[in-house]
Amino acid sequence: MISEDRSASRRTFVRVAALGGVAGALAACAPAAAPAPAAAPQQPAAPAGKPDWEKKWDDLVVAAKKEGNLAVIMPVGAGWRKLMDGFEAQFPGIKVEARQFTATSQSVPVITQERKAGVFAWDIWTGSPTIALPQLRTEGYLESIANAFIRPDVLEDKNWRDGFEGGWLDTAKSMGYTSQAEGSGFLAIDTNQVQEGEIKTFQDMLNPKWKGKITMADVRTGSTWGPMMSVRLQLGDDVVKRLIIDQQPTFTTQAREIAESVVRGKSAFAVGSNAVVLNDFVSQGIGQNVKLIDVEGMTYISLSNGAWYQMSKAPHPAAAQLFLNWIFTKDAQLLWGDQIKANSRRVDVPPADTLALPKPGRKYIKIGPESTLEESAKTQKFLNDLLGIKN
After folding, report:
1. Which of 8, 70, 129, 333 has a CB 3.0–4.6 Å from the CB of 319, allowing a cystine?
2. Could you list the pLDDT tens digit for every one of the 391 residues in the chain?
3. Is 11 exposed, middle or buried (0-12, 13-18, 19+ CB in 10 A)?
4. Are the C-beta atoms of 267 and 190 separated by less than 8 Å?
5. Segment (H or E) for 285
6. Residue 338 and residue 332: Cα distance in Å, rounded?
């Protein structure tokens, strides 16, 4: 809503005294002055019209409501569904159909299979740029969103850390925009097994006492190769091998299994845990024994969690554009932070997770922008080779 600055207007009245005495006599002898022309009636000021962007916004809302639906692919967790509920509440008449996947890599085969069958079911996809850019973009499944943003509160540099431009994920600044830039890759520990301060660095995770007591996300998912990329680039390949092979972790593709392994005490700690899923356990009154900790060497800066893309040939293009503008507004980012437990790049949105704030003086590997894709691919291949996984 745009607020108007309404200033009270004033009228200034000037009282002129009648001339008397000599001045009055001289005035009487003077020729009569021609009557002043009647003042033209003052026209009321024309009301100011709406800004151009606001007209476009109104038209977009109407078009999106006419479509009536928005189809989204997103991660698992109740918080993501509540985020979509917030969009529905903001724009009554638009129903969000959402399909949730444990890992973003799992949704790509589904999209590919549908596209080959001529099915174009989805409008919006959110997930890792390391999946989106080399796979979805290469196949032509993504639409440019360079001209999608029309709201000034979204476009203004002053509202974003590193300015608005800092959120683009691809070099061309057209496909994929993120609201996140924060620490990620935290370790979930069972505090009944791991004592306070017992694990501070990645080397602490290699203690033989943890052998067979570790759960990890499948190495083909970003939840594992993200933190392992950070370790590999900072500490070397051999250190990663000691965790992946020597410590004999249990791998799973299911986010709930990862969380439950530490909630139930089956594992001492878990790599690749999902904070939203962990929060689902806490909301049920269990999981108070689980704590996320920042392990130096493994934590990295992620631009993935708040990354959004529009699918090409989207069935509801107006609703997709409306969502892309809405999700980056202050109110939507407040909701996103509250439900996803992630920190927004918007400077007017307070941190939702102080643990994820980058620590001054700490060296971090950044994962997400197109410039990091080559090293991401090398890490994925390295991990696959370690376990003999054939793609």
Report:
1. 70
2. 333 333 333 333 333 333 333 333 323 334 444 444 444 445 444 446 789 999 999 999 999 999 999 999 999 999 999 999 999 999 999 999 999 998 888 899 999 999 999 999 999 999 888 888 888 999 999 999 999 999 999 999 999 999 999 999 999 999 999 998 788 999 999 999 999 999 999 999 999 999 999 999 999 888 898 999 999 999 999 999 999 999 999 999 999 999 999 999 999 999 999 888 998 998 899 999 999 999 999 999 988 778 999 999 999 999 999 999 999 999 999 999 999 988 999 999 999 989 999 888 888 998 888 989 999 999 999 999 999 998 6
3. exposed
4. yes
5. none
6. 10
Output the six-digit token pair for 172: 């061309």
CA angle, 296 then 363 then 169, to 5°: 110
Q: Do the Cβ atoms of 183 and 294 come closer than 8 Å?
A: yes
d(CA 17, CA 271): 90
Give kind and range of the element (H or E) at residue 220.
none
**Distance from chain centroid for Cα 54:** 23
How far apart, in whole angstroms, are the C-alpha atoms of residue 25 and residue 16?
A: 18
Question: Residue 46: how many CB atoms within 10 A of its CB?
Answer: 6
User: What per-residue string of b and e applies to 195-215 under the rule 16 or more CB within 10 Å gives b?
Assistant: eeebbeebebbeeeebeebbb
CA distances from residue 296 to 43, 139, 282, 290, 292 in whole angstroms, order as listed: 70, 37, 26, 19, 13
Where are the strands (E) in the chain, listed by range?
69-75, 95-101, 124-126, 142-143, 177-178, 182-184, 187-190, 214-217, 250-252, 269-271, 290-293, 300-302, 307-311, 366-367
CB-count burial class (<10 Å; 0-12, 13-18, 19+) for 9: exposed
Where are the strands (E) in 102-152, listed by range?
Answer: 124-126, 142-143
Q: How far apart are CA 87 and CA 361, in angstroms?
A: 38
Provide the 10 A C-beta neighbour count for residue 177. 25
* Residue that has been written with the tokens 């800092």 in this structure: 166
Q: Are strands 300-302 and 187-190 parallel, antiparallel or unpaired?
A: unpaired
Q: How many residues are there in the chain?
A: 391
**Helix crossing, 330-340 with 317-327: angle to 10°?**
80
